[in-house]
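Internal ticket #5521
Category: modeling
Description: The requester needs a full-assembly model to guide mutagenesis choices. All entity lines are attached below as received. Residue total reported by intake: 435.
Assigned to: D.W.
Attached entities:
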Amino acid sequence: MALTFRTGFITEPFNAIAGAIVVPVQRGVTTAGTWFKTRADELAEIRRLQDENASLRARIDELNTQNTALQQDVYELNELRILFDLDKQYEEYETVGARVIAKDAGNWYHSFVIDKGSDEGIQKDMNVIAGSGLVGRVIDTGPHWAKVMTIIADNSSVSGTVLSSADNLMVTGDLTLYEKGLIGFSKLVDNADRVAAGDKIVTSNISDKYLPGILIGYISSVEEDSNHLTKSGTVTPAVDFNHLNDVLVVLQLKEDHTTEVEE
Amino acid sequence: MKKAFVYFLMILCLFVLQTTVFHAISLGGIVPNLILIFVVSAGLMSGESYGLTCGFFCGLLCDIFFGSFLGFYAILYLYIGFVNGLFHRSFFAQNIALPIMLLTGSDFVYGVACYILMFLFRSRFAFGYYFTHRIVPELVYTLVAALIVYPVILRLSTRLDIIERKSEKKFV
């Protein structure tokens, strides 16, 4: 011991031997250790990531729900804004209430007679609404009665607009659809396929008889026509025509309305 | 004269009934055609001139209140009244088969004429649908309604005939 302590002549070979034998092992072990360590670390990491992932996913779900809710709110907001506008428009029109006193004698058309006429200021082509939507228009007046043609009558056509996409279409009464409580529409040009069931239809501003923005109903089905250019389908009217007893006559004609706007 | 006045009142009554109360008892949106029952019976009981005039006025009422232009229903009911009036000679009160047959025929002709003139001309070709959902139900419902309305018209008409004959005797 003292020898080695003093001289250290044997140290080098030992070192060399040790170095030659142990170091690779050490290296190996270290490498392996590190490898295991990293694997272990990785495993730990994976577990952590998995946990983190799970929590993030939960967060995403939460945000998604929030997002959907917000989107719905936005849609609702838009719709309410539109409705609000519509309501304002309805309010702008001066109306007079009238009672339905007689309904069509035949079974082919669906016109009716109301108890207000030219003496009460009602004129031909005035629009008739009830509660939530369009009923029809006055087609003839007497002193104290007026004849109203409904939009569900087979010979009636109204030019309408889809609110969501602003596409124009023709809403036409159809006796074959009447029993299902529907009316037909046609001539809808919608190449982008934006119009779907449930969309609102209001009277268009290009109609020469009907005031713009009055609710007609909701689209219940859309089909592509055989010409592949236009679409047609059915509309559920906003008004319950079977239980129609009181209506409102809008005391403003479309012609006057357009001239006012131009002025 | 009295007869004409009573017939006029009768037309008004039936027209009002049909356009108001009968809509409440309509089945599947189908209303029985009281006006047609009256026109057929008037023609049958009183001859073609009465049938023709009654038909014209009934139709005119329909035109004024519900038609899109004057004259369509007037001329349709006028023809129906006239043709039924041709059967006046073979009419007697106890015979129930003739009025039923004529009413069936008239309502059928009325329905088909309405379809052709108001729907076919606007290129609505689904005759099968209109036949099974409008013409036939109306026919059946009208026949059922006629069971109640026809005897009333018949009794009224015979009473009027008796009164008129008496007054004629007075003058002679």
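Resolution: model delivered.
Comment from assignee: Chain A touches chain B through 20 residues (CB under 8 Å).
Ticket closed.
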